[in-house]
Design goal:
about 500 residues; alpha/beta; nine-stranded mixed β-sheet; 9 strands; about 40% helix
């Protein structure tokens, strides 16, 4: 099986990978072509890189290898509270050395753009270039941060299919708003199979990675010295353009400066929903780079020595000399989480692990989703919001109550209906910001103090259904304790 086993005294992970070679392994690489390493989008796995793997512009010109991060897809890992983006970068570096991957071009979308930058800063000799697709702010925006907290609880403790699909809809609004219904069906089906409530420990591990991330310092960003391309959506509420521009300015030692390409889009999953333009820009950028080969030669520096060098560099950046003495064979040695964050993540994992055996499953007995997301009945469930942002018990009844003219009229706190071009129907078609959905209010990135308060809140506010399940309170307990000889149904009927 195409796994890379990372074994050490305090850690274990098996990283799944695949390639575009005939046997899906690195031994089938064409030595005449350069290598392209691709990371997958957030909350998905490497199977969602098929728009890139199937594109002949990339598939015919590069040896492509894709990885599942240790907490996603087919990869396996031992739970730990020390997991952060520095560990994901160390995992990637260990995979390079174990598979003897030569210096390669790196492609990373969304959150894992910061994994690629950490990797390029610590291991510059392994990076020919770095392409970032829809980079996020260094720490999450406050509005998105709060939405993720609520979404995580709703997702992990859903007790019926409608509640779970509502959580999926909220994540769709974050990353795939206005996408095709068939693609939405595929996304929701993937989440139902890979991240159902009975696998909520995987959900909370990835959510912790998002919410507890820390920013890179100017010195760390200045250590990125390879060509960098940033492909960014122009109007994404969760991935604002201004932070991509700030990142371009912070990469001061990139040759000729980092390049920024704007894509006229609003969604977060840019590498999936706008894959054609992303692949075109990526291919043109990579073909302008100097030619490189993919010879699978042994590394010039042994793994242990190179990892000690990287740990020494990281210790200097973090001002923590003890990091240089960590185990060089363990990716967890690169973890920069504080003791407070480590304890919080371990406690939260233990809380979410309780009751997973009896948690709700959105799957049929054959392991497939019970239905398509598009097959749900929109007009019968009060959780579905209308165009004005409010929910109604019967949407059709509400729509029949007012005329077509009044429905199209703009009212305070209400968005007018839009046509396929995203402009107001019956308006001038100017595409103003007032006619666009504003699911996330503009906000600033959260501070480390707010992250700490949120960690305390998540760890202390136990899910109500977990605490009260199988617990009988009040007069019902007296009914049961009053006599064991009579059945409960007969006593209730008295």
């Amino acid at each position: 099986m195409p796994y890379v086993d990372l074994v050490s005294s305090d850690d274990y992970a098996a990283i799944w990978y695949s390639t575009n070679a005939p046997a899906c392994n690195v031994s089938g690489f064409d030595p005449e072509k350069p290598t392209l390493v691709m990371l997958h989008p957030l909350f998905l796995d490497s199977s969602w890189l098929h728009p890139q793997l199937d594109d002949p512009r990339l598939n015919s010109n590069f040896n492509i290898i894709v990885f599942d991060l240790r907490t996603t897809g087919k990869s396996l890992y031992r739970p730990t509270g020390r997991f952060d983006l520095w560990v994901t970068a160390a995992d990637l570096a260990h995979c390079f050395y174990h598979l003897r991957i030569p210096a390669a071009h790196i492609f990373a979308p969304e959150l894992f753009s910061w994994t690629a930058l950490r990797f390029a800063a610590l291991f510059p000799e392994l990076c020919l270039s770095v392409t970032l697709c829809n980079v996020t702010p260094q720490t999450e925006l406050k509005s998105v941060f709060e939405a993720f907290e609520e979404l995580c609880h709703l997702w992990c403790y859903a007790e019926d299919l409608e509640s779970f699909e509502t959580a999926c809809k909220e994540l769709i609004n974050c990353y795939a708003l206005d996408s095709h219904p068939d693609l939405v069906d595929e996304l929701v089906a993937f989440w139902e199979v890979h991240y159902p409530p009975f696998r909520r420990t995987f959900v909370i591990t990835n959510v912790n990675l998002v919410l507890n991330r820390t920013p890179m310092t100017p010195d760390e960003l200045a250590s990125v010295r390879c060509p960098v391309l940033i492909i960014q959506a122009e109007r994404s509420p969760t991935h604002p353009m201004e932070y991509a521009q700030q990142l371009r300015e912070a990469l001061v030692n990139v040759p000729n400066g980092a390049q920024l390409f704007n894509v006229k889009a609003t969604h977060g999953y840019l590498s999936i929903l706008s894959s054609s333009i992303v692949n075109q820009v990526l291919n043109k950028f990579l073909t302008r780079q100097p030619a490189a080969r993919s010879d699978l030669d042994p590394p010039a520096i042994p793994l242990a020595d190179r990892m000690r060098m990287a740990l020494a560099q990281l210790a200097e950046w973090q001002d923590d000399p003890s990091m240089a003495d960590q185990d060089p064979f363990s990716p967890l040695s690169f973890s920069c989480v504080t003791e407070e964050v480590k304890k919080s993540q371990e406690e939260l994992y233990a809380i979410y692990q309780e009751g997973v055996q009896t948690a709700f499953s959105p799957l049929a007995p054959d392991g497939r989703p019970l239905r398509k997301y598009s097959e749900r009945k929109l007009d019968e469930h009060w959780l579905e919001s209308n165009a004005d942002g409010f929910s109604y018990s019967n949407v059709k009844q509400f729509q029949d109550r007012i005329s077509e003219q009044n429905r199209d009229k703009r009212r305070p706190g209400r968005r007018p209906p839009t046509n396929g071009n995203g402009t107001s129907s019956g308006g001038s078609g100017g595409g103003s910001a007032l006619s666009e959905p504003t699911l996330f209010a503009p906000s600033e990135p959260v501070t480390q103090e707010l992250q700490q308060v949120a960690r305390i809140r998540r760890a202390t506010v136990l899910p109500q259904n977990t605490a009260d399940k199988h617990v009988i309170k009040g007069s019902m307990a007296k009914v049961i304790a009053s006599g064991a000889g009579t059945s409960l149904q007969r006593r209730l009927l008295r």
